[in-house]
Amino acid sequence: MVATDEELVARSMDGDVDSFNQLVLRWERPIYALAYRVIGRDEDARDVAQETFLRAFRALPGFKGQAKFSSWLYRIAHRRGRHEAAAG
């Protein structure tokens, strides 16, 4: 049985790094695609995607589950992408 995002997030919050890695594998393509749409440059989009997951991992203890994990992750990626696009 495939674990839901919510289950993987809960395990990740309990220190299970493999669960967070599963979330990365599940969401890396959609997050990259969003970053690419915002920035339009492959290498910068890859950097934004990587930074998104790093920020999400660091902020995970503060994730309250009021929104879906994917929505929260997309918000992080979109903000990072806009910041990167503005920077140039």
Summarize the structure.
The chain has 88 residues and is mainly alpha-helical. The chain has helices at 5-13, 17-39, 42-59, 69-87.
Give your account of this protein's structure.
By secondary structure, this protein is mainly α. It has a single domain (5-87), classed as Orthogonal Bundle (Rna Polymerase Sigma Factor, Chain: A). The protein contains four helices and no strands. The termini are far apart.
Give the SSE layout:
Blueprint: H1 5-13, H2 17-39, H3 42-59, H4 69-87
Helix pairs in contact: 1-2, 2-3, 2-4, 3-4
Regions with pLDDT < 50 over 5+ consecutive residues? Answer: none
Amount of helix: over 70%
| Rg value | 13 Å
Counting copies of identical and different chains, the oligomeric state is single chain
Shape: elongated
Strand segment count: 0
CATH first level: which class? Mainly Alpha
Total of DSSP H or I helical runs spanning 4+ residues? 4
The CATH topology, please?
Rna Polymerase Sigma Factor, Chain: A
Strand content: under 5%
**Would you list the SSEs in sequence order as H and E?**
HHHH
CATH architecture: Orthogonal Bundle
- Estimated structural class: mainly alpha
Please give the largest β-sheet: none
| Average pLDDT, all residues | 95
The CATH superfamily label reads: RNA polymerase sigma factor, region 2, helix turn helix motif
Number of domains: 1
Separation of the first and last Cα atoms = 44 Å
